[in-house]
Amino acid sequence: MRRIALKTRLIDSEVVVNRPVFNGAVSPEGFRISLVIRSAQNALPLTIGRVENTSRGSLIFLRLCLFPGARLYLWFSTTLCVLIAAVFLTLSSLTLAVITALLIALANYLVLTLSFHQKARETIHQIQGILAEEGE
Predict the structure, then answer these.
(1) What three-state secondary structure class fits 73?
(2) In this predicted model, which residue has the larger pLDDT, 95 or 17?
(3) What is the dihedral of CA 66, 49, 134, 116, to 10 degrees?
(4) Which of 7, 47, 59, 106 is the one with CA 20 to 30 A from 70?
(5) Would you kindly state where each structural domain of the chain is located, as residue ranges?
(6) Contact 65/48 with Cβ under 8 angstroms?
(7) Three-state DSSP class for 114?
(8) Global pTM?
(9) Short-list 126, 136, 134, 121, CA closest to 21
(10) Among 95, 93, 120, 98, which Cα is nearest to 106's?
(11) Transmembrane segments in this chain: where (predicted)?
């Protein structure tokens, strides 16, 4: 118990207020960032972007996509459900099992897509907030 207590640090209120909103990599060629999260989220968008200077200011180009692991999960789970439906369809006449497997695949896709769009809106909102602060 003493070892745990020695490693514990009190959090300064300034640290809590100024904690980072994004993590990732920024370079002169562009950036790859995502929201800082406290728990695992499959639908978290990866924001890939670049900044181009113009005579009137700067343009920021953004592309939001799923992380590669989330894309793999979506592909694997959908493929698995479709294969299970195909097995039920060919080996037996359990139409209910076929429909259930296909509905699970559809529900999985919809939940991940809707969650991604919700997190994408949150990401864009946070980026706009940071840019508005910098413009002041």
Answers:
(1) helix
(2) 95
(3) -10
(4) 59
(5) 20-135
(6) yes
(7) helix
(8) 0.76
(9) 126
(10) 98
(11) 72-91, 97-116
